[in-house]
TrEMBL record:
Similarity comment: Belongs to the GST superfamily.
Organism (species): Xenorhabdus khoisanae
Protein name: GSH-dependent disulfide bond oxidoreductase
MF terms (GO), sorted A to Z: disulfide oxidoreductase activity
The organism's taxonomic lineage, starting at the top: Bacteria, Pseudomonadati, Pseudomonadota, Gammaproteobacteria, Enterobacterales
Signal peptide segment: none
Domain GST C-terminal: 90-206
UniProt-listed SUPFAM superfamilies: GST C-terminal domain-like (SSF47616), Thioredoxin-like (SSF52833)
InterPro entries given in the database record: Glutathione-S-Trfase_C-like (IPR010987), Glutathione-S-Trfase_C_sf (IPR036282), Glutathione_S-Trfase (IPR040079), Glutathione_S-Trfase_N (IPR004045), GST_C (IPR004046), Thioredoxin-like_sf (IPR036249)
All copies of domain GST N-terminal, residue ranges: 1-87
Amino acid sequence: MIDLYYAPTPNGYKITLFLEETGLPYTIHPINISADEQFKPEFLAIAPNNKIPAIVDHQPADGGEPISLFESGAILFYLANKTGQLLSKDLRERTEQLQWLFWQMAGFGPMLGQNHHFNCYAPEVVPYAIKRYVEESQRLYKVLNTQLEKTDYLGGNEYSIADIATYPWAKCHEYQKINLQDYPAVEKWLDKIKQRPATITAYHDA
Ligand SMILES: N[C@@H](CCC(=O)N[C@@H](CS)C(=O)NCC(=O)O)C(=O)O
């Protein structure tokens, strides 16, 4: 059984998307980040970076003590190894999938997060920040589009944790001042993932 510390945000959905795809049993523990619940000592004991998502796996593969984990990319990688699903065993395909997973974690997610912040939440309008993050987002969507013109999914022809990490952020394109018509391969890929039964279940709370 996996305990999932969760809020319905792009980083939270990454983990429910994975868990729904694989059927691994889990219990959701909602963390209300608007009410600062991420700063409670019991949550910080699991996630010292005070951000969701985080998990506790009560049945780790080595049979030892429960394993707790934060950072969505690390969680997806851990769960892919645990289940043997959604990360290829083929060296080249796996390397490609991990490359795009890291691209999402280091670039696509953080930049779109800043874009979203300065466009939707900043208490003052900061034109330089909006321009910087919208332009960087456009660059990243172009990179994504170019890749998806070549392969069905981000790391090749199989759906993987690279797609799972990237989908919830690209799904929010309207908040990022991104016009999907400029990125037709991304639009097609989003539509395909949106129709997966696991995606529909994971987003039941949206
Ligand atoms: N790099 C982290 C980012 C997680 C993150 O930014 N979580 C946000 C919600 S999407 C959060 O918990 N924010 C609360 C806070 O910053 O206090 C990951 O991928 O897990």
